[in-house]
UniProtKB/TrEMBL annotation:
Gene3D superfamilies documented for this protein: Galactose-binding domain-like, Glutaredoxin, Winged helix-like DNA-binding domain superfamily/Winged helix DNA-binding domain
Region described as Disordered: 67-118
Residue ranges constituting the HTH luxR-type domain according to the UniProt record: 5-69
Compositionally biased tracts (Low complexity): 67-76
InterPro entries named among the record's database cross-references: AhpC/TSA, Sig_transdc_resp-reg_C-effctor, Thioredoxin-like_sf, Thioredoxin_10, Thioredoxin_domain, Thioredoxin_ResA/DsbE_sf, Tscrpt_reg_LuxR_C, WH-like_DNA-bd_sf
Protein name: LuxR C-terminal-related transcriptional regulator
Domain Thioredoxin stretches: 150-297
Species this chain originates from: Geodermatophilus maliterrae
Annotated transmembrane regions: none
Length: 473
């Protein structure tokens, strides 16, 4: 699952600061949830992030890490109570595969002293360490009982579709148009592998429950700059057989009205216009369909047919091999990257000739040849520019475009120094040949046998490729 950076990420960390202060004052997770309109599991997740950020292990130590009400600080992050010395930089949270690279390490190098502490210290520290905590660790969150009073939000008072910049497959829809219908709102961005693996379920529900009164609305809020505009969304919708209405949300107005932070995110609104259920990320499909059917029944629907509906997921939409997945999504622009291993590090926004090290650690990546590493992406300038990734997963995907000129860019893939053969993904031949002809997610590898750590080397035979992220499954 992905989160949006910038103001949205800052708001998320502000929530964590509130959670931490309430926990410091002795409130339980359910009490904090009731105060902040969150489920207890959601509070627990955010609180774990806070404790890891501060390098502490208990709520008792939290009292030492946070300022008192008058702004004074009895301790400093990492110190804990007397007799519990720590290193001052916190410690990494255990996860599937390495996530902390040179860029993130530089973000947390300043030593912390009591002089750095203010009432906003936690918020600032969380922002600075944001690279360590990708929200794709969370498969689902809980806002409390699906039919509880605290889960009901009036649609006009809080969330709206009015800010959509364009519509596909439908005229613009309003809350008034949808009143009396059960509505499933799906936030997506078309290069997100988590959304692609969720899509078969949403598509199946749209088809199975349309006649019972369900309206599915996809809200496309673009993560990368090249995903803006209705044309790319239209191509993605046609490629993925999406026939339900799509609100193009280039300005993130709909996203903000829902207070959303994640791709993908599902919101279920009942026939009276109230939010009754939501899910962030992949998973929770049976629960979501159960609530969906409940809301349709409440709205007066008759026979809803078999449960669960039949879902067909093929190609890039097939479920991940979670048992073997040890690699995490890696961004290739300097703003969010981790694990960059080319000697000398990143030179931001300037052309440079990079080289790859002799060996890569799991979760690390490198460039070779003439590249510019920009905020969002790395851009190749000459033929035979190479991107090398060390990973452990069944599937390897690359989010890439052919650049501003739009001229297709040929590439060749080697897997552990050899053509991929039977392990080639949908966008690669058995000999490793492929082409980046448009901006989208490309499946490079789908291994057919045992999954172990491997090195993928992508050599771009033409200049101009823009590479944004590698993802796994």
């Amino acid at each position: 699952m992905r989160t949006r950076t910038g103001d949205v990420r800052d708001a998320l960390h502000a929530r964590e600061a509130d959670i931490a202060r309430l926990a410091r004052d002795g409130m339980s997770n359910p009490d904090i949830g009731a105060r902040l309109f969150l489920g207890a599991r959601t509070v627990e997740w955010h609180l774990r992030k806070v404790l890891t950020t501060l390098g502490i292990t208990s709520r008792r130590e939290l009292r030492w890490a946070l300022p008192d009400g008058d702004g004074t600080a009895p301790g400093w992050p990492g110190a804990g109570p007397p007799g519990h010395a720590r290193d001052g930089h916190g410690r990494e949270r255990p996860r599937r595969g390495p996530r902390v690279g040179a860029h993130a390490a530089r973000e947390r190098t300043p030593a912390m002293t009591s002089d750095h502490l203010s009432s906003d210290h936690l918020l600032d520290r969380a922002r600075r360490l944001g690279q360590l905590f990708r929200s794709d660790d969370v498969r689902a969150e809980d806002r409390g009982d699906a039919d509880g009073a605290d889960a009901l939000w009036p649609v006009e008072a809080d969330f709206s579709l009015a800010a959509a910049t364009d519509w596909l497959n439908s005229r613009p829809l309003t809350g008034a148009d949808l009143r009396g219908r059960v509505v499933l709102v799906d936030f997506w961005t078309h290069t997100c592998i988590n959304w692609l693996r969720q899509l078969p379920y949403v598509r199946a529900w749209a088809d199975a429950y349309r006649d019972a009164g369900l309206v599915v609305i996809g809200v496309h809020s673009p993560e990368f700059s090249f995903e803006h505009g209705a044309d790319g969304v239209r191509r993605a919708a046609e490629a993925r057989s999406i026939g339900y209405p799509i609100a193009v949300d280039d300005s993130f107005g709909v996203w903000r009205s829902f207070h959303n932070h994640f791709w993908p995110a599902l919101y279920l609104v009942d026939a009276t216009g109230r939010l009754r259920h939501h899910v962030f990320g992949e998973g929770g499909y049976e629960e979501t369909e159960t609530v969906l059917r409940q809301l349709l029944t409440e709205a007066g629907a008759g026979d809803l047919g078999p449960y669960p509906v039949r879902v067909e997921a093929h190609g890039v939409e097939a479920p991940a091999d979670w048992d073997s997945l040890r690699s995490a999504e890696t961004y290739l622009g300097y703003d969010r990257t981790t694990g960059f291993a080319s000697p000398g590090g990143v030179v931001a926004d300037r052309p440079r000739t990079y080289s790859a090290p002799d060996r890569l650690r799991l979760g690390h990546w490198a460039l070779a040849g003439a590249w510019t590493v920009a905020r969002e992406a790395a851009v190749s300038h000459e033929p035979v520019g190479r991107l090398t990734v060390r990973f452990s997963a069944r599937d390897l995907h690359l989010v890439a475009t052919p650049g501003r000129q739009g001229t297709p860019v040929r590439f060749r893939l080697l897997l552990d120094g050899r053509p991929p053969g039977a392990d080639a993904g949908l966008d690669v031949g058995a000999d490793g040949s492929g082409t980046v002809a448009e901006g989208r997610l490309h499946q490079l590898v789908r291994r057919s046998g045992a999954v172990d750590t491997a090195t993928a080397e992508i050599e771009f035979l033409d200049p101009g490729a823009e590479v944004y992220a590698v993802t796994f499954g």
